Each structure stands twice: as C-alpha cells, then as structure tokens.
C-alpha cells in the first residue's frame, strides 16, 4: 500500500503535497544530493513530518524530529522534492518549486567519565607541579613520570641541583598531564639569594597550576622544613590541596606506617608511599590522581563545548595541524653571557632564573612557544665548558646535558658577550670556536648573537660600537671557514632589543637548512659554474656527469663523476661556495659527496652490445677478462 501511495503522490506532484505527522526521539540533519539542509538550531517545537525527495526517478522519504520554525525555506535542486507545510500545498505549485526552511536543533556533546587522556590536546591537559624541600627526589619523580632522564639528579644535601622550572608531558598509565619540576623551597632564605629567587619563581608558576604533589623524604621522617613548606603552600596557593607523597620508601617496612601517621600533621590527607627511583607505588599514585584529573577534564571540556564558537571535535589532538614541523632552537655559549636573559626576552616573561652569578643555569630548560604560527622548541643550556677532572657532580652533568641539547637542535644560537670582546680584543675565544665548529660538524644551522650591546652606548663608546659591528662578522667568518654567510645579530637581551631580529634570522636560517633544489636546476647551475672555474688545463677538469641533492636538513648533494675522477678539496670548496652564493644557503653547512660512474667500452653497453649496424653482439666471460665473440 505504501508503494502505491508513493506512486500516486509522484503522479500528482503538481497538484498536491502531503505531510505525514510523526514523532522521533532524536534529531538529525536532512541531506540532499548537493547540500545539507537545516544547519541552524531552533527552540520552537512543532509536530514532525515525513518529506519526500526525488533523485532522478527514485522517491525517498526522510523523517525529522519536530523542532521547526514557521517560515520554512529550502532551495531544492536537481529534482529534490520539498516537504509540505501542515500537509497541504497550493494547487498551482509543484514540489520542485516549493521551498521549506527546516531548522534542526544541533545535538549537544556532553563529556562524561571515563576520559581518554591520550586523545586530549596537550594545551588542555591539567598541570601538576612537584614541590618540596631540597633533596627529597622531585627531579627523580619528574623523570619517572615523563619516562626520560632529562632533569639532573644528584645527591647534594647542602645545595640545590634544580634551579629552574622544567616542563614535560607525564605518562602515568593512560593518564596524561603537564608536569612541572621545581626547585627546593626554603622559606627562611632572604629574597636576594639564589634560593630566595627560585622560591619566588616557584610561587609565580604555582599560581597558574591546578594540582600539586608535595614530596617528603620518608627516610628522614617529617622534617620541620616540610611543615614550613605546607604553611607556604596554604599562603601562596590556597586553592590547591596537594597530594602528599612519601618518597624513598623502597627499603622501609614497619616504620613506613609511623612516618605516614606523622605526615597527617601536614593537614593534606593520607600520604602515598612511592619510590621514584625504582617505580614502587606508581599504581597507588595513579589511583589518587585519576579521579581528580578526570573531574577537572570533564568540567573543562564541557565548558569549552558550551561556547558557540567551539565544536565538539576541536578538543582532540587529532585535529592538530601537522603541516609545519617544529623548530628546535638551542641557545649555547660560555657562562654569564646572557643566555637565560635572552630566553626570557624571547618569551617575554620571567621563565628561567637570571642573575649576575656565573653558571647559574644547570638544567637544560626546554620551552615551547609559537612564532608566526610555527611551533618553536627553545632550549636554554648551561654554560659550555671543557670537561676537566675538577668538574664533578652537577657541573659535569650540566656539560654533558648541554652537548646532548646541541646534537638534538636544528639551529644553534651562539651568544657572545660584547664586553668580553672589548677586553680580549677578539670576537671568539677558544671555547666558543669549539662550540661553533661542533655545530658545523653535527650539520646544524648557526646564528651568532652578540649580547650586551647596551653597555656600549654614549659618546665615549660610539667608535667602539661601530668597530664591533664591522669586525665581528669578519672574524667569525675567518675562524669558521666551513660556513659562509653566517648571520650576526647585535642585541641587548636585558632591554629586549633585537628580539624580533633574532627570531627572523633563526627562521630564515631554518628555511635554508630545510631547502631542496631540483636536479634540473642544479645541472643548469653546474654548467654555468664550471665555466667560471680556472683549471690549469682541460685535462685536469673533473668530468661531472650530473649533480643532484639527496637530502635536506642539512642540504646534502652528490656529484656523479665519470671513471676514476676524484674531486679535490679545492674543487669541493669552490662548489660549496658557489652553492651558497647562487642559492642563498648562508649559515647552513653543505655536504658534497662523490660517486663514480664506471666507464663502458665504446659501442657497447651492459651485458650485450650493439655494432654500428645495429647487430647485437653477445658476450661470453672467461676467468681473466670479458671478451667478445
């Protein structure tokens, strides 16, 4: 009966339109052959209906829930039959001419437990800060959570190893959250000391975090300084109720319960026993953190979804644009040249500890930010020094960590001190030359930054200012002849001058470091450049068959030579210099490899040869040589 009804409606579509009242428990979108109908929402409710659409010769029905508006307009095309309003159409209108605007309420996405933290964007993840008095195992727990040994760990009861805030993504089972490693808190120190500055910086960062983990050393019991840290937390972060963790509990038995009862005096609830070194108790820490982080994520995601300009799928990490690879930038140099000050100037915030003390930075601090839409990972390293037998403990670990950061980076920013240049009357010392040459050997892009130019202001230093700007680029090119066109930037990190110029030079060097040249363009360039080279005679000219680029980052080329010809060092230097001048590849190392193309006998090719008449000559082999028969 339904089929006959459909045929009747199709035959009389110019005279009659029918609308059947129906109700649905859910709402969805109506799709035509070319567009989606009714993308908007409406709160005015009417009875539902069934519409008929004709695609070609077929007739289909669509059922819609009853959220409609009185003025309905749908522009149908390609034979789409519209829906009748209240079941009646005017007799002089066809279904193809009727336009009905159907407005369907968009379903609301509501996040509930459990939350899959692995699919959440890193920018939305909660932040957990690890705090405590010095030498209780904060950095060890940080390394355990991020599953890498990044933070320096060394037993120094009378000193701080960690001085800056380190940030990473914690992976505890299926939990994901931002974790911060902080310096040890001492509340009684004066504000001008290093410990006072680190405590103040910790308080500033703690105000922007959501959760905290307070660590105590179970071997030492509840220390009086732990109680002071608890009071400090209530004062500077009253909105945070920290999770108390008893570290170094792998070797304690019955005394563990005693220390746990003492830890209740902090007033933050039942403590959790763990061992950051061995991984003991990570399951218990997971069970404590899971409900707290889930409640936070449910509230955060639902708040974002309630906004009109945020869609439900925007919160997932799968939507992240990966078209631009992140840039790894490492700031290196000797101690006390202004590396940390430069990092704070680039970020425009007090992110790392700065001061007049030499060797203040110990950990290689890695920070992510965006510049012109490109993600940049900025690494502030400790002062590069040659490792000696006297360098032990944290100093030795800092040197090794700085070398690892240099090898991981794409671009190296070598910072020089303008005051030291004036005193030594030379641009680069031996250690700075070692840094630059190591960067070249590793194939990294290089940018030289001359800091503290604000010290050369005034009429007395005007001549010195001009001489430094003229002499430094020439001397840098002299001591590092492997790379030509090294960019040199003169800045004042303390005043923030030259910050944009530094990043522009870094981005330009990175683009040249990633550049690729087509084989056709290279071979056209080769024919021109070979005519400019002055060989003694034509016989000594290398027979380069063709020239091609095999990889970028850094640009690497292969010269295919005929026979046993070998390019001399002078020829490679000439080709390298010509590539940098003609294709603007300054500041990046260029590698040229050689490959030999074996010569073949005249008139033959491969295993079989052809005579000038075109006859194929087979080849047979003997024990000594290949002969033709």
TrEMBL record:
Domain Guanylate kinase-like: residue ranges: 125-332
Single Gene Ontology MF annotation: GTP binding
Region ranges (Disordered): 597-629
Keywords, sorted A to Z: GTP-binding, Nucleotide-binding, Repeat, Ribosome biogenesis
CDD domains: EngA1, EngA2
GTP-binding is among the record's keywords: yes
Xref: Gene3D superfamilies: 3.30.300.20, P-loop containing nucleotide triphosphate hydrolases
Highest taxon of the lineage: Eukaryota
Residue spans of biased composition, Low complexity class: 598-615
Keyword Nucleotide-binding included in the entry's annotation: yes
GO biological-process terms attached to the record: ribosome biogenesis
Pfam families: KH_dom-like, MMR_HSR1
Family: Belongs to the TRAFAC class TrmE-Era-EngA-EngB-Septin-like GTPase superfamily. EngA (Der) GTPase family.
Protein name as annotated: GTPase Der
């Amino acid at each position: 009966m339904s089929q006959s009804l459909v045929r009747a409606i199709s035959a009389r579509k110019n005279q009659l339109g029918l609308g059947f009242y129906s109700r649905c428990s859910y709402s969805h979108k109506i799709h035509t052959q070319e567009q989606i109908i009714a993308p908007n929402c409406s709160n005015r409710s009417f009875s539902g209906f069934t519409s008929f659409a004709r695609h070609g010769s077929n007739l289909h029905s669509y059922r819609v829930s009853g959220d409609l508006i009185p003025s309905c307009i749908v522009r149908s095309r390609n034979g789409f039959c519209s829906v009748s309003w209240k079941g009646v159409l005017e007799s002089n209108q066809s279904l193809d001419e009727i336009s009905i605007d159907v407005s369907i309420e968009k379903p609301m996405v509501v996040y509930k437990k459990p939350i899959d933290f692995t699919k959440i964007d890193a920018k939305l993840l909660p932040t957990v800060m690890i705090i405590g008095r010095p030498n209780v195992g904060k950095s060890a727990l940080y390394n355990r959570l991020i599953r890498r040994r990044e933070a320096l760990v060394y037993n120094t009861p009378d000193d701080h190893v960690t001085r800056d805030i380190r940030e990473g993504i914690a992976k505890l089972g299926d939990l994901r959250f931002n974790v911060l490693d902080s310096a040890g808190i001492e509340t009684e120190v004066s504000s001008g000391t290093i410990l006072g500055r680190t405590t103040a910086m910790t308080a500033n960062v703690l105000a922007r975090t959501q959760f905290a983990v307070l660590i105590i050393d179970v071997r030492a019991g509840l220390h009086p300084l732990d109680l002071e840290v608890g009071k400090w937390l209530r004062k500077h972060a009253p909105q945070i109720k920290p999770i108390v963790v008893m570290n170094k509990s792998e070797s304690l038995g019955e005394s563990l319960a005693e220390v746990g009862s003492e830890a209740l005096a902090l007033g933050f609830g039942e403590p959790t026993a763990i061992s950051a070194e061995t991984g003991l108790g990570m399951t218990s820490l997971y069970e404590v953190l899971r409900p707290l982080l889930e409640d936070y994520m449910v509230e955060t995601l639902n708040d974002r979804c309630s906004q009109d300009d945020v869609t439900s799928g925007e919160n997932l990490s799968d939507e992240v644009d990966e078209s631009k690879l992140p840039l790894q930038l490492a700031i290196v140099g000797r101690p006390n040249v202004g590396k940390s000050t430069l990092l704070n100037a680039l970020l425009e915030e007090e992110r790392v500890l700065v001061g007049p003390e030499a060797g203040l930075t110990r950990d290689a601090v890695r920070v992510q930010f965006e510049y012109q839409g490109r993600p940049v990972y900025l690494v502030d390293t400790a002062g590069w020094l040659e490792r000696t037998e006297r360098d032990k403990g944290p100093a030795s670990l800092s040197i090794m960590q700085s070398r690892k950061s240099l090898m991981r980076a794409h671009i190296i920013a070598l910072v020089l001190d303008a005051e030291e240049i004036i005193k030594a009357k030379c641009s680069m010392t031996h250690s700075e030359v070692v840094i630059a040459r190591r960067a070249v050997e590793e194939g990294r892009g290089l940018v030289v930054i001359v800091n503290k130019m604000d010290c050369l202001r005034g009429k007395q230093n005007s001549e010195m200012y001009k001489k430094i700007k003229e002499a430094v680029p020439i001397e840098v090119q002299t001591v590092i002849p492997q790379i030509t066109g090294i960019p040199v930037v003169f800045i004042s990190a303390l005043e923030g001058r030259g910050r944009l110029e530094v990043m522009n030079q870094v981005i330009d060097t990175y683009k040249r470091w990633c550049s690729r040249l087509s084989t056709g363009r290279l071979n056209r360039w080769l024919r021109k450049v070979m005519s400019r080279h002055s060989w003694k005679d034509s016989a000594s000219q290398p027979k380069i068959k063709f020239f091609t680029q095999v990889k970028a980052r850094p640009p690497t080329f292969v010269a295919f030579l005929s026979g046993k010809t070998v390019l001399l060092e002078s020829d490679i230097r000439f080709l390298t210099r010509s590539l940098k001048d003609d294709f603007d590849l300054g500041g990046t190392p260029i590698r040229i490899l050689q490959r030999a193309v074996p010569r073949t006998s005249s008139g033959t090719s491969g295993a079989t040869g052809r005579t000038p008449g075109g006859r194929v000559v087979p080849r047979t082999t003997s024990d000594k040589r290949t002969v033709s028969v």
